[in-house]
Amino acid sequence: MDWAPIRKPPEVRARANLRDYATACRDFDWTTARSAVSGLPGGGLNIAYEAVDRHAEGPRAGQAALRWIDTAGGVTEFTYADLAERTNRFAAMVRDLGVRQGERVFTLLGRVPDLYVAVLGSLKAGCVVSPLFSAFGPEPVRQRLALGEATVLVTTSSLYRRKVRPIRDRVPSLRHVLLSGAAGEGDPPALDPLLAASSPEAQIARTAPEDPALLHFTSGTTGAPKGALHVHDAVVAHHVTAAYALDLRAGDMFWCTADPGWVTGTSYGLIAPLTHGATLVSDEGDFEAHRWYRVLEQQRVTVWYTAPTALRMLMRHGGLADRYDLSALRFIASVGEPLNPEVVVWGEEALGLPVHDNWWQTETGAIMISNFAGEDIRPGSMGRPLPGIETGLLRRGPDGRALVTEGRVQQVTEPGEDGELALRPGWPSMFRAYWNEPGRYAKTFADGWYLSGDVARRDADGYYWFVGRADDVIKSAGHLVGPFEVESTLLAHPAVAEAGVIGKPDPVAGELVKAFVALNPGHDATSELASEILAFGRRALGAVAPKEIEFATQLPHTRSGKVMRRLLKARELNLPEGDLSTLETADAAR
């Protein structure tokens, strides 16, 4: 189904940070962009200084940097000056423990103030920070701690006892475990007394732009997790992309709902908004529709960055948004998986603002393609490349990946033709390595391009449209079928809340398209409804429509909100389920 573009009024365009896309792309260069950050006094660049101390030393010292909402709904504020002092103490503490610059500090925490202190304090000390999902089990925790050669882990007493203590003796590099909150008998030391005894005036390590700063583990469909390493220069891209793609500015109340163990929870849930002098809103509680609307209303959130899964769950609650005052909202963006066009339009109707999709990966470190505040939206599109980012589509071979012939690739030039999405290296937040895996890193590049593994198409105006992961694309009766396109079409049926699409082996067609569907309240999973949805799909999609429908109470998601198609396929075919460490087990929207 085709969706009409959403036109932005002139007054919206005039207020946007990015008002003229063509001019911004023509005039942009990263050298000039670096002037937006201060740099360390005396030379060097440090993410924590850009996020906290340069504000704490100026007129924003008394402004709220972090507004934290606990599970009971209580609110605690930390000013930029508060955050500067506490992160100084953390940096001094790790140095007192004998931790050296470049060693790895891991966090295994939910949304609690000590998460922000540990990340920023570690960066001040010149350490490399690696956040982990608090929902990981003991083995995924052990695997990542061992792969990253962790020196320090900051966690809670409960998480330590359940997930760390059983595996600690199998991580020989781990010298220190520090506990946020109370520590019980026999536990490692609590963080608070150590911070209280540390200096509030620690010097920030004189890190250089190319010094390692962040280590984010990402799981592929197979194999061990990959540790994508980013450097302090990444803060330049965090800052610029937040201004362009999220329309973020000083004084905003910014709420990013991404899990802090995921790259978005670091790049945009922590670093980027602070570099702009915004206030972070952080909610410790789990997803619940009324709670989320209350946060938006009571905290007067102006910019909201959330996940398609969460938005679809809010859609299922009908007119609930009408009960809340959301007038402070200026901009809504989505991340985690491609955004279905229905959700973009629902945002305008229910929230008064359309939802802006964007695209990036752990490896890119920052948003690369986006729909912008000052530009029209094409529902279902990822948008256009940010200024300073060169993208291309590469012709694909039989395996779905870019076809590399004698080290060379061919670009797709015709609008509407699929290809593997690729980017020219050179932006500051591009990952510099897979930790201790140079061969694996080298395979992600060809002929001067970074190969994303995502398949997309581009229209005549330069808007990109997601098709699927190269290893998700379905080959059915000579057609290449993008699961996302099929899922979005099914989502337009009033009974369908979510859909996950896979290819099922077939001796004649090669693969048949099968859809797993979760229903909206008020609809029963009957054979009549299945037939109706199949017919709906055939009318919209023709030959590439699903041939089978299976109803599910809910679909499996990663904690970043992506439907785990490979898990649906493994269960359908009775295959090994593989790495489930990123599976969302508690609530799909966090």
From TrEMBL:
Family matches, as Pfam families: AMP-binding (PF00501), AMP-binding_C (PF13193)
Domain AMP-dependent synthetase/ligase residue range list: 55-435
Annotated Gene Ontology cellular component terms: cytosol
Top-level taxon in the UniProt lineage: Bacteria
The enzyme's E.C. designation: 6.2.1.1
InterPro entries: AMP-bd_C, AMP-bd_C_sf, AMP-binding_CS, AMP-dep_synth/lig_dom, ANL_N_sf
A GO biological-process term: acetyl-CoA biosynthetic process
Signal peptide (UniProt feature, chain positions): none
Every AMP-binding enzyme C-terminal domain range: 485-562
UniProt keyword list: Acetylation, ATP-binding, Ligase, Nucleotide-binding
GO molecular function: acetate-CoA ligase activity; ATP binding
SUPFAM superfamilies xrefs: Acetyl-CoA synthetase-like (SSF56801)
This protein's name: acetate--CoA ligase
